[in-house]
Amino acid sequence: MNYVFTKNGERKVEHFIQSCVEKRKRMVEEGIDTDDLIDNARNLSAKDILLSINYFHASDLKKHTYSVLITDHFRGELTLIYEADFIKCEKQSIIDDAINKEHLAEDIVDVFENLLDEKNIEIPCNDPTEEGHRHDDGNDAKIYGTEYFDLVAQVRELL
Fold first, then answer.
1. Residue-by-residue DSSP string for 30-91
2. Where are the domains of the chain?
3. pLDDT of 75-126, one tens digit each?
4. How much is the average pLDDT of 19-48?
């Protein structure tokens, strides 16, 4: 089957990815778990979740649960509801277009990220917790966290 995210599904997935990154960081910092073997949260993408739906989802089910190890022993889980968060797409080209739009939106935001880097300008996070963690692990992103994901979503809407 070929599925695509609805707008609600896109928002849910973006929030899930961000929460996995934050949860992983908090669990490691507080000594709840280790990250010696697993760092899936940092590399998690909406494309991974969409591929999971398209590969594993049985067409008679009304929901799909995506699970990913975010530390060595703990998982993050996201349940998406059919027709609310993802829908069938009859044409593969539409799915390809949706995936290409996502990549193009990220590439456009990266152009601005590079410009901000050249000018040594950071866009502050509205969320104090995100702002407090933005430079952890050597991260030097100029657009970070919710601001990054919101900007990508806004650019994708224009495409």
1. TTS---SS--HHHH--HHHHHHHHHHH--TT-SEEEEEEESSSS-EEEEEEEBTTTEEE-S-
2. 3-88, 94-158
3. 999 999 998 998 887 665 555 666 677 778 888 888 888 899 899 999 999 8
4. 86
